[in-house]
Specification:
single chain, 256 residues, alpha/beta, D-amino Acid Aminotransferase, Chain A, domain 1, Rossmann fold, 4-stranded parallel β-sheet, two-stranded antiparallel ribbon, 20% strand
């Protein structure tokens, strides 16, 4: 039942871990998976998992989401007074329904929660809690977001493309900002390809349309090569996500 110790060790070994670190990581992986399975979790995450100079692995933060419909099977959790999530009474918009369909076309990567707003700046953002920081920064600098769309988990080019097309086709959109924190589980080049393909398929000239790209992480330089090739404005990781949000807002403001 669940993940066995040998499976945890194989997983850690395939990650390139060795010696004591491999056994410690394997132990954490087994326990995390078995908690996920035992308690009917929708999500069981340790992020970040820190390796200290002394060779210890420390869970600096963790997040669990329990399936509400399965709580009745876990009476032992009642003492934790876990609040029941209440779905929003607001009916999803066509934009939000379509985004959910796009998210389901492939199991790889997630679009997170997509919410439609009435602004003119389309957002494709990522980085866990950084997504909310980016969204707030846009508002702080006077911008009006057209949507909230968080990507992560290494979405495919197709998924990024379809999400980008959905955003760009939204009435009132004047520009697009692709801003993420440093992502260790999402390839920057795939995000770049998806954004470019979306614009090409919509017959939008990437070098002329107001787009800002600031994403850091795996295959970062490859992603920037693609962006530079098509003449899109980009900011590297030397620029904070707040600076990127401010630049995106100014980009839209200069059109007025």
């Amino acid at each position: 039942w669940g993940m066995q110790n040998y499976q945890g060790k194989l997983l850690a070994k395939n990650m390139g871990l060795k010696s004591k670190i491999m056994f410690k990581a394997a132990n954490i992986a087994v326990k995390l998976f078995n908690i996920f399975s035992k308690y009917d979790c929708d999500l069981a995450e340790i992020n970040p998992l820190i390796l200290t100079q002394d060779g210890e692995l420390i869970a600096a933060d963790a997040h669990l989401e329990l399936e509400q419909e399965a709580l009745y099977r876990h009476k032992e959790l009642e003492q934790l007074n876990i609040p029941i999530r209440k779905d929003s009474p607001r009916i999803p918009t066509e934009f939000e329904i379509e985004a959910e369909k796009i998210d389901k076309i492939d199991h790889r990567g997630v679009a997170g929660r997509v919410v439609e707003f009435d602004g003119d700046l389309g957002l494709l953002i990522g980085g866990g809690g950084a997504s909310l920081t980016i969204f707030d920064a846009v508002r702080y600098h006077g911008g009006k977001a057209a949507n909230y769309c968080e990507i992560g988990g290494n979405p495919t080019v197709k998924k990024v493309k379809e999400l980008t097309k959905l955003i760009l086709k939204k009435p009132g959109i004047k520009g697009l900002a692709v801003i993420t924190n440093v992502l260790n589980n999402t390839r920057v080049d795939l995000v770049a390809r998806g954004v470019i393909l979306a614009m090409v398929e919509l017959d939008i000239n990437p070098s002329e349309y107001p787009v800002l790209f600031r994403s850091a992480g795996a295959y970062e330089e490859d992603g920037y090569k693609i962006i530079r090739k098509y003449g899109i404005k980009y900011l590297n990781r030397d620029y904070s996500i707040d600076q990127a949000a401010k630049t995106a807002v100014e980009m839209i403001s200069n059109l007025k």
